[in-house]
Amino acid sequence: MRPFLLACALLVAIAPSACKRDDDEEEEAPKKKKKKKAPKPDDSVALVDAGSETNDLGPKPKSLPGGDLLAPTESELLKASGGQLTMSIEGEAPVFKYGRAQLGWGGLHVTLSTEKTGCAYATPGDESYQIDFDLSPGPGGGYYAGHAIGLAVSWNSARLKLKQSHAGPHQTKLLLDPFVAKDGEHVKGTLSVDQSTKVSRPDGTRAQYEYRARGAFDVVICPAFGGVTGLDPLAKTAGPGLVTGTFAGHAFTAMSALAFVQKDWSTGLHYLDSIELYPVAEPPCSDRYKLTASEHLTIRAIGGSGTLFALTGQQPMEPTFTIPKTAGGLGYPKWFGGGQRRGWIQFDAFDLSATKLSGEMFAESSAKSKPDETGKLTGRFTAKVCGGI
Fold it and tell me: For residues 340, 387, 71 and 173, what is the CA-based torsion angle, rounded to 10 degrees?
């Protein structure tokens, strides 16, 4: 045994450290654990809906857009799709080659899709997009075919969480070829949509998102939903004289009307939000909320009612009638029963910079409506424009 090792063996019981050699490596001290840094504040953005100045309280997107997402022009969209309906949606431009139409209690529901669809319901694929809208029977049951109308349109993506998915009747234009509403018939037409929304950045600025659709579609009518066999059409002509009639047993004659113009803050464009007809002499615009304590007819969701798409001819609209439950108290608006948009309106001339808007209207519930939703009102009106351009 080597001398050094023999010495260690003899001394280890007395002084174990005596065997430590100068060139032995010292044991490293345990490393201190580094504290994890607190996560940075979420840079997600708050949504601002089109036409609104308030933040949406719904879910927020995870990433901040680098800049505006502006839609291609109309000619660029049509050139890229060969004239087929395509829509610019947050940086993508899907083409809607497929779809279907189906009668339901509220009208003819049309779904346009980027993937093949049958009459039987099927869950959309992960990469699919859809566009949906509802057509009311309209005058004579022709579904407003033959001239351009405006109506509410929605769209969705199976993959993307969209910042906007709806356009109002003043932001769309639909032109249908005449058709017969029965199984196997085709619904053909062209659709235009121009919508925009603004997304707030953390620095207070806003990113602009544009949604634009242009092009033609062709879908087949599937068997009716829920056994619907037909929908009551509206009259083709309005009654003479002032707007008059009954609703839920209450006689009503409109002696005046106010037309309320609003501005879509995301686009800067004006549109006609609603018309209210009253059984009193013409009031000032400031009396609007005082007049809600009396019976009145309200017309909303008016097609072709904006500076973007100012359309002529009979346009679909949504009529409601309000009857206060107590004298001087507020009432609840009642829809004309039998489906959506049981009325039409036609202006003599549509100019939101004018002081007056005149025209005619017709609204009537379907034959099987509940008594408190049954009514018919028709005639001519002249409305004072409130909040015009």
Answer: 40
Is the distance from CB of 172 to CB of 153 less than 8 angstroms?
Answer: yes
Per-residue pLDDT reduced to its tens digit, 102-135 = 988 778 999 999 999 888 878 888 899 999 999 9
Counting every residue written for the chain, the total comes to: 389
The answer to whether residues 304 and 350 touch, using CB atoms and an 8 Å cutoff, is yes
Amino acid at 322: T
Residue whose C-alpha is closest to residue 163's, from 128, 126, 210:
210
Model pTM?
0.80
What local confidence, expressed as pLDDT, does residue 243 receive? 98
User: Residue 56, class by beta-carbon neighbours within 10 Å (0-12 exposed, 13-18 middle, 19+ buried)?
Assistant: middle
CA distance 174 to 165: 17
Q: How far apart are the C-alpha atoms of 360 and 345, rounded to whole Å?
A: 6
pLDDT tens profile 332-351: 889 998 777 899 999 999 99
State the amino acid at position 225 in one-letter form: F
Q: Residue 163: pLDDT above 60?
A: yes
Question: Beta-carbon neighbour count of residue 13 at 10 Å?
Answer: 7
Q: How far is CA 305 from CA 152, 172, 173, 225, in A?
A: 12, 10, 11, 31
Q: Is the dihedral of CA 351, 299, 58, 195 positive or negative?
A: negative
Return the CA Rg of the chain: 33
**Parallel/antiparallel/unpaired status of strands 107-113 and 129-135:** antiparallel
Q: pLDDT value at position 23?
A: 43
DSSP annotation string for 89-157: ETTB--B--EEEEEEETTEEEEEEESS---SS--PPPTT-EEEEEEE---BTTSTTTTS-B---EEEEE
Pair 111, 97: CB distance under 8 Å: no
SS3 171: helix
